[in-house]
Design goal:
By secondary structure, the protein is an alpha+beta fold. Helix content is 16%, strand content 39%. The chain has two domains: 4-100, Ribosomal Protein L25, Chain P (Beta Barrel); 107-185, Ribosomal protein L25, C-terminal domain (RNA Polymerase Alpha Subunit, Chain A, domain 2). The chain contains four helices and 13 strands. The protein has a six-stranded mixed β-barrel with strand order 1-3-2-6-5-4. Strand 2 (27-34) and strand 3 (37-44) form a beta hairpin. The longest helix is centred in the C-terminal third of the chain and has 13 residues, at 213-225.
Length: 226
């Protein structure tokens, strides 16, 4: 597992005004939580933003090298607990880190990556992708960046479940085994539209009920009486 090292400094700037001032300098305000304490910190905004945008740091173990002043630094294994973004510009505004023990297992969510297109898609089937990440339990040093799944054998009418994910050493899957990751359904068959009569084709003759004899003779009798 590749070590991700991020440098940070303790932060004295507080409040909205202090946070805005830091962001103008491309410095990101953040907080590191752990062991019942919280430490305000600041770090390079572009560096951590790149980690989150590429997906590499959102689920990964990060070594936070904290500058505590007087040339004293300390390393802290952390995970990204939460982050806030500006809804319009997508600018990263704040990050919360949580310190973890390398000897204790933790629960994290890992993205699923489909490596092969299902066979049913090539036969005209429709893919329904339902689960894109799963929850697992493992040591922080064993957190995978992603879990790859070969879906090449999934045909029309079949599904791929969490129980089909190959087991990895040190990893325990918490998500229910019965959860459907993806399925391939048959394409919908459209009903044939009613055939319109061809122009110039003779229409069926209209059936007219013949009048009864009494109805035909009635007018004639009336004329004679007149």
């Amino acid at each position: 597992m590749e070590k991700i090292l991020v440098k940070a400094d303790k932060r004295t700037e507080t409040g909205k005004g202090g946070a805005r001032s830091l962001r103008r300098q491309d410095v990101l305000p953040a907080v590191m939580y752990g062991e019942g304490r919280s430490i305000p910190i600041k770090l390079d905004r572009k560096e951590i933003q790149k980690l989150i945008y590429t997906g590499g740091g959102e689920h990964a173990l990060i070594t936070l090298e904290l500058n505590e002043g007087d040339s004293k630094t300390s390393e802290h294994p952390v995970l990204i607990k939460d982050y806030q973004m500006e809804p319009v510009s997508d600018e990263l505004l704040h990050v919360d880190f949580i310190e973890v023990s390398l000897q204790k297992k933790i629960k994290v969510t890992i993205p699923l990556v489909i490596t092969k297109e299902p066979a049913g898609i090539k036969m005209g089937g429709i893919l329904q992708h339902r689960v894109r990440e799963i929850e697992v339990e493992c040591l922080p040093t064993q957190i995978p960046d992603k879990i790859e799944i070969d879906a090449g054998s999934v045909e029309i009418g079949h599904s791929l479940h969490v129980s089909d994910i190959p087991l990895q050493e040190g990893l325990r899957i918490i998500t229910a085994p019965s959860e459907v990751i993806l399925s391939v359904t048959a394409p919908k068959v459209e009903e044939a539209a009613p055939v319109a009569p061809v122009e110039g084709e003779a229409a069926e003759p209209e059936v007219i009920k013949a009048k009864g004899k009494a109805e035909e003779e009635a007018p004639q009798k009336e004329q004679k009486e007149k």
